[in-house]
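name: query_chain
kind: protein
chains: 1
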Amino acid sequence: MAETVADTRRLITKPQNLNDAYGPPSNFLEIDTNLPIFKLKESTVRRRYSDSEWLRSELERESKVVVPPLPGKAFLRQLPFRGDDGIFDDNFIEERKQGLEQFINKVAGHPLAQNERCLHMFLQDEIIDKSYTPSKIRHA
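structure:
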């Protein structure tokens, strides 16, 4: 049986500045998916790094899936007086996007993870209700 891999791609890429990071949410990763297991045949959502952390913790807590790691946090890049662009450095932003894409592709392509409600919420719900009750998706 062929492995299904989520079709994720960045739709908008632009340099970030302070207004981008802390202003209206234009620094989200946009995710497209078209896996047949999801209720919507095509969907696009916008997610932040913290949303990926939430998904990872939910999968670790509620499933038997070995969850891949997320790209590293940017603690040191947030320090002032670094002499570079810190978290706004183009290379850092691109590396993080690539790492998040790899994470999402691995998780969304995993047959057991595809039955987890948190993954469906992450990939298809416009807003993630983080107070949901964990459950598996029931297919007819």
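note: The CA atoms of residues 60 and 108 lie 14 Å apart.
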